[in-house]
Amino acid sequence: MTSEASPYTETRSGGNTAAEGPSWGALAVVMVGTFMTVLDYFIANVAIPAIQSDLNASAAQSQLVIVGYGVAFTAGLITGGRIGDLFGHRRMFALGLLLFALASLACGLAPNADLLVVARVVQGAAAALMVPQVLGVIGTVYSGPGRAVAFNVYGMVVGLAGVFGQLIGGILITVDIAGLDWRSIFLINVPVSAIALAFVFRTLPESRNADGTRLDLPGAVLVTGSLVLLVTALVEGREQGWPAWSWASLAAAAVLAAASVAHLRRRGREGRGPLISPALFRSRVFSIGLAATVTYFLAMGSFFFLLALYLQQGRGLSPLESGLLFLALGAGYFGASLLSGKLAARLGRSLVASGPLTLAAGYALTGVAVVLNGTDGSVLWLVPSLLIAGLGMGMTTGPLTGLVLSGAAPEHAASSSGAVNTAQEGGAAVGVAIAGTVFFPALGAAASAADYPHAFTVSLIPLVVFCVAAAVMIRLIPAPAAT
Q1: Going by DSSP bridges, is the β-strand pair 8-10/207-209 parallel, antiparallel, or unpaired?
Q2: Cβ of 54: how many Cβ atoms within 10 Å?
Q3: Which residues contact 118 (CB under 8 A, 6 or more apart)?
Q4: Distance CA 305, CA 42 (A)
């Protein structure tokens, strides 16, 4: 990709340009960052009991270890994407990776729960700076069939990190490396980040938006504030039984969101480089695809949450044992991700649309298996349906991401990537909140293990609906114009 063909400026140092045949080492480096950031979204769940015991953490502090990372990560993605557009994708990826390593070190060395929470927030903010640059790099460095392969690899890595987060955490804590216990799940990021950082400037070319505009700070404050209020209210509000403050937070988020739209439109009309260009949403491929992404992740992210509850609290499995059962999801996901690139060339978006339907079938069959087996039957009966669900996830995540970003102009590569990442993480967070509002009332206040199969199965109903809705939306995405 040359500067004449794109509004991005790219340098030769540190990697090849798309026109010269980019090295796949660049993809390997950014995928390391992707895997760690997604993994840390899930892996800390396994360590909460040990953290509570070791640091004498309260229930609220334990929740903030999870929520603090998730809120900072989700709320900062759009701003992180725009920063990458302005100051360079490679440079911001490297900075985010360095900050992520330092925050992980602080998490692993935290002497008390309060400092651990602060370090997790910083870790989430670092991830929000790093992750949008990944899709920005893919979108600007790779082209043609290579880009499709890169997006499929990205989707595979995202899914595998989510699927195996619980298993990896369980293994690290069980092995108890050097007596570190729960601290190892954070400290392991440090050497991995250092190795990746050593190769960033050797493999990644630099690219940035060359429009000369400055960062839209008021827009960043408005968009970030609305996302913080929304995600915090949905996640913490559900945990605390929807107190008055959670509804006030949702109302304030709506007000800030409306103010954000007005601000971005005005700044766009004035040609002053808004945080998110309204022009992005003039593309039906991008706008409908983004809605489909949110809907799909409502169904995907919440399933991990429900399955972990059923297996650990309903069936009494340990984190490691339940993590091993997640291998069925991972096998299906991995297999579909390997095949989706080849099939997409033949089937196009028909393959992407069939992914959520396959996922819906997997969920429905999982519900049937749970009803038939209750709490006494072998959990191995879940393996076939989980394999099908994994296939659906693998058929959708990477190809849908590539499809959505194909509708964005190259000058908005990282900012559009930030919007897609926000749709993914925000959809997952909202999906967990929705699933919780169905699951816990169905479980009842005086719940026993026998109540979990019913609560789990009922909670799958909205997930199936989301899957079908996502498939319909994908079908509505316009086909590319014939050339």
Answers
A1: antiparallel
A2: 14
A3: 68, 106
A4: 9
Distance CA 170, CA 281 (A): 42
377 C-beta neighbours (distance < 10 Å), count: 14
Give the mean model confidence (pLDDT) for residues 340-347.
Answer: 63
Place of tokens 């899957």: 467
Helices (H) and strands (E) in the chain, counts: 15, 2
At 208, is the secondary structure helix, strand, or coil? strand
Quickly list DSSP for 118-172.
HHHHHHHHHHHHHHHHHHHHHHHH--HHHHHHHHHHHHHHHHHHHHHHHHHHHHH
Of 60, 375, 11, 38, nearest in space to 204 by CA = 11
In this structure, what is the dihedral angle of CA atoms 468, 132, 214, 226, given to the nearest 10 degrees?
50
Q: Which residues contact 228 (CB under 8 A, 6 or more apart)?
A: 71, 75
Query: Mean pLDDT of all residues in the chain?
Result: 81
Structure tokens at 327: 């291998």
Contact, 325 vs 379, CB < 8 A?
A: yes
Q: Write the DSSP string, 44-64.
A: HHHHHHHHHHHHT--HHHHHH
Helix (H) or strand (E) holding 480: none
Q: What is the pLDDT of residues 54-69, one digit of tens each?
A: 888 876 677 778 778 8
Q: CB neighbours of 155 closer than 8 A, spacing ≥ 6?
A: 337, 340, 394, 396, 397, 398, 399, 400, 401, 402
Residue 263 half-sphere exposure toward CB, CA atoms < 13 A? 17
Cβ burial 67-94 (10 Å sphere, 16+ → b, else e): bbbbbbbbbbbbbbbbbbbbbbbbbbbb
Q: Which residue in this structure is represented by tokens 């399933």? A: 303
Sign of CA dihedral 263, 267, 273, 279: positive
Confidence (pTM): 0.78
Where residue 98 falls among pLDDT bands split at 50, 70, 90?
very high
Amino acid at 165: G
User: Residue 121 pLDDT more than 60?
Assistant: yes
SS (H, E, C) 219-283: HHHHHHHHHHHHHHHHHHHHHCCCCHHHHHHHHHHHHHHHHHHHHHHHHHHCCCCCCCCHHHHHC
Please say whether the dihedral angle defined by the alpha carbons of residues 293, 227, 135 and 389, taken in this order, is positive or negative. Answer: negative
Q: Are 9 and 205 in contact (CB under 8 A)?
A: no
CA torsion, points 306, 307, 309, 315, in degrees to nearest 10? 150
- The mean per-residue pLDDT over the stretch 278-306 comes to 87
